[in-house]
Amino acid sequence: MTGVVAIISVFGIIPLCIFLVHRHRERKALIEKGLSAELLVSATKDRTQESLKYGILAIGLAIGILVGNILDEYTRMSEEVSYFSMIFLFGGLALLAFYSLAKKEKE
After folding, report:
1. Per residue in 5-58, pLDDT tens?
2. Which residue from 37, 25, 58 is spatially nearest to 66, judged by alpha carbons?
3. Which of 35, 45, 61, 92 gives a 20 to 30 Å CA spacing to 2?
4. pTM
5. If you write DSSP's letter for every residue of 68-94 in order, what string do you get?
6. Contact by Cβ (8 Å): 86, 71
7. How many domains in the chain?
8. Which domain holds residue 38?
């Protein structure tokens, strides 16, 4: 289980660092041109939708971990395969569920 958490942490931290460095460079370039960094923040961006997306994703990941644990305990599937496959499966299903909800709301 420690290995799974370590791998997920590494693959989560690297994209986060890249995102933060890129955002810093964008804001620095805007300030050098004399523009406000508020241009990067969309005025119409709905925080409720974003919270809903991350909430559904967290629920999907939690279900994936739970099902992965069940598969690990009661089948002959290896620990790594059971956890990773279920985390990605239920995480993806959660994002598809959010997409479906967001599409219905726009209509």
Report:
1. 788 777 888 888 888 898 888 888 888 887 776 666 654 456 778 888 899 999
2. 58
3. 92
4. 0.58
5. HHHHHHHSS--HHHHHHHHHHHHHHHH
6. yes
7. 1
8. 1-105
